[in-house]
Amino acid sequence: MRGIQMASAGRLAGLASMFMCGIGLAAPVFAMDCAKAAQPIEKRICANPGLRAADARMNSAYAGVLKAAPDAAIRDMLVRSQRRWIDARNNRLGADYDGHAMAVDEVRKAIDRRTAVLADQSGKGLIARALAERQWLAKYTGGPLTGFDGNCDFIPDDASGAHVSYACFGAVHVQNRARVCSQSEDWATGAVYQYRLVSAADGGKVRPVAFCEAQAHASACDNGGTQSGWMRAGAAGGDNHASTPVTGLPQLDAEMWPIGDGDDAVWFDRCLTAAMFP
What we know:
The chain has six helices and six strands; from the N terminus they run αααααββββββα. It is about 30% helix and about 20% strand.
């Protein structure tokens, strides 16, 4: 629930579906081959020397971060991350939300921001965040239901939709023994909503137990007691928007990080280790 370029304050989650195209998992993608450009935004980039240069810089940064990946799991995560960005670019950067062509400067800014993310080798870069995420997950037993269900998209910065920012959304599921604790967030009409779910795990099967909904950073879901807004799964009147854990999700997603400090980490630790929760 961490936006690379956040369109609103706070952590965001759960807005857009991923559209598969573009980048294969086996090899990095370098500067665009304009002879094979198929998407409208690809053709637009190829037709503009400034955008072509920006795209070349981005792909050079992408090749660099792949080379710096310390192991295959993190490299695969980086490939998924870039594929996700390309999907969002193809679907959102061709036109604004009113259907007008996105300004060239806005497209270039989006590409340049992505280049900066890929080139960041600091403690805030994608590789460092993936390593910190892995260290945090190691505190718990793990299991087939641990995983990240992340989606990313360009969302509007204002009502016109002429300015957009890239942000990542989704759910984090962590298994500890027979319990799975999940946190997801949605963004809608400028507001952030948070959902938390507790499930019981039996091998690869899962049984939702209780869920809670609140605006992000509100206290309604922080208290483990049933009086704090938690509802039993399937309760009458309950509208469970929380993402249910499934097997086969990616085990790392740096764009869903940080979670290892602050209120989210406190909640996960209490949920995963308490004798009973909620």
